[in-house]
Amino acid sequence: MFLITLFWLLMSLVVYTYLGYGLVLYALVKMRRVLGIGQRVLPPAGEAAHVTVVVPAYNEIDCLPAKLQNCLAQSYSVDRLHFLFVVEGSTDGSAEWLETQKRNVPNLSILSGTQRLGKIEAMNNAMRLTRTPLVIFTDANTTLNLEAVSRLVRKFDEPGVGAVTGEKRIQMESTEAATGSGEGLYWRYESLLKRFDADLHTIVGAAGELFAIRTELYEPVEADTLLDDFMISLRIAARGFRVEYEPEAYALERPSPSIREEQKRKVRIATGGFQSIQRLTALLNIVRYGWLSFQYISHRVLRWAVTPFCLPLLFLLNIGILAQLVLNDAAPLSLAFWGVLLLGQLLFYGLAYIGYQNEDRQTRWKPAFVPFYFVFMNMCVVLGLVRYWQGGISGIWEKAARTTQTADSVSAASTTQIG
């Protein structure tokens, strides 16, 4: 009975984390709407605020021309839009190229230097130079939709909003490898959860590719922080401000070119997750933080620190329970039930293995790549815990490789974007 009770407890945690929480969110949001609780109406738009767009860019010379053009094309009052590119430590001519653009872009500022300090220090230094009431952070290798800035800024017309995050979308081609398919599906589900989170109270973690904050709320982040976007937004939420979600402000990003590159990125994120949990221990106090704690624990803590370790235990417990039933001559129906559960797990992991074998091929067979990406993500969490235990964590950014897009494939890719 102990093994069976433990099995169902762990199974409940897994189901709640990946499916139940979304259903609970949906039900709570619907209930609040019926009762007329928490309805938000933006006041009439006021005067356009001055905004600084901060772009940390380490050795991103290949991306800078397109990024600057994308920033200049934004549908926001150009006289109220300022750009700060942080290229400290870059050795590819980024600072020199940006200097040549200042003649045509008077509202362009550059923060450069010979020392590579890392993304966190770059952001901290950028904020010391920022004088506008609002700041938008965006990555150099992403493309923003033309209304991104205006849609993010509009959310700040509500006084209780301290930060706003846009949506990350994976830009794929029809011939993309399975890795990109799994990544896109994952972010589509994450986007749905963020919508529900925002409707209930606040989202728990901004998208580093595109998010905005009130300048006065920024707190310098520890230099070794791995998830700067997460820490900045959660600390703002902990001070009683809401972190809003604007899905119509989005950043397009190419998927990882291989599972090895994706693993490096996921392990770093997982390591940062454990680091964040340790630094945000106070948010576990649901008596003090209420809805924020409920959302933080359900959406982040369980996914990062609990359920990945439940999966192998469930498999082992299933084997142990079945072995005990066989030894005790249990009823055939009970044996069949636990046998089917074990076969189901074997089938799931078998499909994941097939997905792994085909991860670098142009396949879209969801019965394989969905289990594969699920197992892959949880495996990266375990590796992230090992890395966190080992210590030696550095905030120096590691440039993530992304697939490139040829000119001939632009039109095909634009029709298969996954949010």
Number of helices: 14
Give the rounded overall mean pLDDT.
86
Going by CATH, the homologous superfamily of the domain at 51-300 would be: Spore Coat Polysaccharide Biosynthesis Protein SpsA, Chain A
Level-1 CATH class name of the domain at 51-300: Alpha Beta
Question: What is the 3D form?
Answer: globular
Give me the CATH architecture of the domain at 51-300, please: Alpha-Beta Complex
State the order of secondary-structure elements, H for helix, E for strand.
HEHEHEHEEHEHEHEHHHHHHHE
The CA-CA distance between the termini, in Å, is: 44 Å
Runs in which pLDDT lies below 50 for 5 or more consecutive residues are 406-419
Instruction: Note the beta-strand portion.
Output: 5-15%
Total beta strands: 9
Range of helix content: 40-55%
Structural class: alpha/beta
